[in-house]
Structures are given as structure tokens and as C-alpha cells.
Amino acid sequence: MGRYTGPKGRINRRLGTAVFENAGATRALDRRDFPPGQHTRRKKVSTYGLALQEKQKIKYYYGLRQGQLRIYFDKARRTKGNTGEQLLILCERRLDNVIRRAGLCKTRPQARQGIAHAHFQVNGRTVKSPSFLCRPGDVITLRNRPGLVKLYKEIVEEVVGQPADWINSDPKGLTATVATLPSFEDVSLPVEVGQVVAFLSR
Question: Which InterPro entries match (predicted)?
Fold first, then answer.
């Protein structure tokens, strides 16, 4: 199964977090901050269910498939340091996330679409893989096409939020430079990553 393309508002309500940032999905969570469904009475969620919810937050927030998340988890487990923190740092380094955190797109799905359509370059080379892991010193630019420049200048004007501290962003120039690797404190997703590690270690 590919990435999720269904109703985003339902996922935000189910997980109780704005994992999808588009206006309709965030509005759905603000209006009805309870899970979707006909019955208002909810059963107590098991430990397994809570861990599953935390894992789903990461999947939907970063637009990952189960196999991709497993690959990141295995890589994080082989890296020195806390496995959960390393997992989220790997997700933060994805090109689609960096473009979103730099303020060049309004949402991660929008950034992912732009990358797939060859709108962006890294160090002067066109990259079409949203999962490309950025490193310190990488310079992300928009391809020099008049139509793209006009489109993204309009997008940048509507972006909400400040760029991440570990990214030197120039929204007016439509460029961004990865200054350092992100730390766990830079992760913008509220998630109990310890439960995710326990879940994926089963």
C-alpha cells in the first residue's frame, strides 16, 4: 500500500494531533477534537493501541510507508545514541521535511509533490526523491523556471510559522541551507517515541 491519500481531517481527529497541516484538516480537529465515528462512548485504549497511535503519528506526519519507517528504525538502531531520538532525527533530515521546515512550502505533501515534479535542486543537482537525507552544508534551491518562481513566491507568502533553527532559510530568494544536523529538541512532532521503539522492536 502506498502513502495515505484519504481524508486527512479524520486522521487528525483519530490521533488527536495536527499531523496534517492543511487548512481543512486542522479545522476539522479544532471543531471536533474527538475521534471520528458514530458512537461517542470510547473503549479504554490498550498499551498496544497507544503505541500503535504514536507510530501512526510518525508515519502520517512524515508521509512514510511502513517499510520506510522500518528502514529508518533499523538505521537508527545501528546509530550511537538513543534509538528513538535518532529515528526522529532521520525523519527530520528528509528533503520534503527540510523544504517544509525552511518555509518554502505550506505542507509536507506539497513539498513532496514539488520534489517528485523536479522543482528543487540540492547542491545544483535536481533531486526527485522526497526521502533524500540532507546533510550539513546542503544548499536547496528552486529550479530557475519563471513559472516555478512565480508559483513558489505565492506559496511562501502563505506559509505559517518560522523556519527551523538548524536551517538557514531565505524564502524571498527561494533557497535554504542546512546549517547543522537537527537535534531531538528540533523535532516538531509531539510523540512518545519510546513507545514507538517498543512497538517496532516486537
Answer: Ribosomal_uS4, Ribosomal_uS4_bac-type, Ribosomal_uS4_N, S4_RNA-bd, S4_RNA-bd_sf
Q: How far apart, in whole angstroms, are the C-alpha atoms of residue 72 and residue 29? A: 29
For the chain, which ranges sit under pLDDT 70?
1-2, 23, 28-30, 37-43
Q: How far is CA 118 from CA 93, 94, 121, in A?
A: 19, 16, 8
Domain shared by 41 and 113, yes or no: no
Q: What is the CATH number of the domain that holds 21?
A: 1.10.1050.10
- Predicted local distance difference test score (pLDDT) of residue 43: 66
Sign of the torsion formed by the C-alpha atoms of 1, 26, 129 and 74: negative
**Domain membership flag for residue 1:** no
Containing H/E element for 141? Answer: strand 139-142
Does residue 73 sit in the same domain as residue 99?
no
- Please give the residue range of the domain that contains residue 123: 94-181
Of 91, 59, 82, 50, nearest to 199 (Cα)?
Answer: 50
